[in-house]
């Protein structure tokens, strides 16, 4: 692998300004004509979107928990191709972790796996010579992490800056830039908007990125930062490519798969679109907030978890698209829905009418549920064979009733089943990173080519009713509900070609039906051999089916607590929902 100049921008904790500096550093480099790439450690769609906007190319996520530690370097090399500087923004503090296991998925672990120098951003507004002790501690804490320099943020005065520089000079730590109080403007749109301003390429988002670039250009030593990034050693190992990930099968036709997003960014991880394209699809962007119809010829719809719940009113107001999605789903075409797309497919959300595909209702809860889940697929679908387990991430306030349909999308230890699988609809609040299981893309394309699954028996959910465009006096009557046996539901949850499964639970854990013994661990893709054959700490995001794991198995990581922002852990107790039977007890203990 060729040399890839790279830096990790981190901080002692959240709130020191690392996001603004990482975005500004990318914008400043691009303004100087330096091709750049932006990455975010962890599952955060929002920061990744702004890093991508600043770099002028797709921002990407590096999350060992979602994709497996062994894929971090190959995915980075893929995203950094052609860039003369790659900026990797950390999550939380340098040695923190959303799961309480920083040695696995913290920023320091990613920096070590990428052999990337770290630049520590420190808010020094209330600090003096103690800064040297703080920085020295971070430098010595982990010998696998190379701390290459410090950026001083919110310096009070020239005298204050000189004192801090002297203190760091005493320990031999370079100062790579200094920003005074007010130099770094608080201009990024509110996090409640998520990646939407980037997806819509709003003037507000573009202006914010430009202003941060100007601030960084005036306060940071870009030449020294570039020299530090260029000094990073060559990164050995393979480069991840979508084509290799999905295999070389070629289809006679290229179905159109609609992917939710905007012209500036998708509402999911960038690799999803790349994998779908490599699997043989033509990906067309559909904006649930603006577009009134699906792209012409659409044969599958994918809505990722990046769209924030704060846009429920706009989703509801787009009645024409709601009608189109309802017809599309009830006609039997594949629909993958994550995050807020689950309540969007329901009857209503906070009293607002939605698509009425699923017989479910949602309300906004008092607190945010956030965390990783090691989920098990209880039935076969085009996302996963029955019994397969995958790690996903969820962050939501919406409380959906019922929590699951007759056939749930996922189950996990410590929580009730969640989501809906009906015909070719797979809806859940859990968000997945398809790079962990690229065979998902091939299954979606195969289902799109196969076409609709016929309705052999009555539907267990409301049949589609024409929903008029919202206007004065419009009343959206709720259609009748009929039922069908669960066994028939399971028989309709995927196309016939997708419902074939291996004879044993052992074989179900291996991609494409190969026995586990025939697939090397590092080549097995998303679905790995039984736990007995794989060390627990190396199992990655996929583990064997539930039948091979004791029911009380706690999973590879402890439950976590997180607040409204992935970078701000909190002490949220489980919310007391306004509707019954919605426990999600895997969420809430502080690391």
Summarize the structure.
Helix content is 29%, strand content 18%. It has helices spanning 18-31, 45-55, 64-67, 72-80, 102-105, 107-114, 130-141, 158-170, 196-199, 203-219, 222-230, 242-246, 270-278, 312-317, 319-330, 341-345, 439-450, 486-492, 496-499, 505-508; strands spanning 6-10, 36-41, 60-62, 85-89, 118-123, 147-155, 175-180, 256-260, 282-286, 298-303, 335-338, 348-349, 352-353, 361-376, 389-401, 410-412, 415-418, 420-422, 425-428.
Written description of the protein model:
The protein is α/β, with parallel strands linked by helices and about 600 residues long. It has two domains: about 5-230, 3-Layer(aba) Sandwich (Rossmann fold); about 240-465 and about 480-500, Class I glutamine amidotransferase (GATase) domain (Rossmann fold, 3-Layer(aba) Sandwich). It contains 20 helices and 19 strands. The strands form four sheets. Strands 3-2-4-1-5-6-7 form a seven-stranded parallel β-sheet, with helices on both faces. A six-stranded mixed β-sheet has the order 9-8-10-11-19-18. A hairpin with a 2-residue loop joins strand 12 and strand 13 (about 350-355). The radius of gyration is 24 Å and the shape is elongated.
